Amino acid sequence: HLKDPQLCDSRFSVGTHAAARRAAGAVIHAVDRVLAGDARNAVCIVRPPGHHAGRRGLIPGSHSCGFCIFNSVMVGATHALHHSTHAVPRVAVIDFDVHHGDGSEEIARHLAAQLPPSALLVVSIHLYDPGDAFISTFYPGSGGHDSMLENVVNVPITPIWRRAGAHKMAASSRSHSSGERTAGSPRNAWGSGRLEWRSAF
């Protein structure tokens, strides 16, 4: 799925596709090494990131792919489950990030109908704030509920700005900045959206 460049923060350059393929390939190679017994474990430090990319890239209805092109972790997970020589019966993906792994969840939900009941578990631990009159929805705005039938577990964490009095601070910040900001610039309030900040720089 392609998105209007004005609505999405993810950009392509000449080397983006090759870099994303190498990132996913590194994860596949690491899985192969571990399953073959050549390595006890593996860590892949790769860019671009992946957990916001769904089955076909941008998730339908989303405004951002969070700089993700391919979901390298889910590529590795499905590779491990379908490995021609050393396939494993179960894979767990534990995602600890400030943002919900919405792309990983979309892929897991799709695979749930094709895999045995306990083959794939996806857990996402992240901040969650659906927003209100004072604070914008915290990106991506999903991950507030589990889907146990599809082995998706979300652990939403309430942000620190939701403490008592944070609404007043956010409202005060907004009122102080309203006279200074120009059209199209982001609100100076806690929880401002990803797209607002992108347009500011």
Automatic annotation (TrEMBL):
Main location: nucleus
Alphabetized UniProt keyword annotations: Chromatin regulator, Hydrolase, Nucleus, Repressor, Transcription, Transcription regulation
Region feature Disordered, mapped onto this chain: 168-190
Keyword match Hydrolase: yes
Signal peptide: none
SUPFAM superfamilies: Arginase/deacetylase (SSF52768)
A biological-process GO annotation: epigenetic regulation of gene expression
Gene Ontology cellular component terms for the protein in this record: cytoplasm; histone deacetylase complex
Presence of keyword Hydrolase: yes
InterPro entries: HDACs, His_deacetylse_dom, His_deacetylse_dom_sf, Ureohydrolase_dom_sf
Family: Belongs to the histone deacetylase family. HD type 2 subfamily.
Name this protein carries in UniProt: histone deacetylase
Organism: Calcidiscus leptoporus
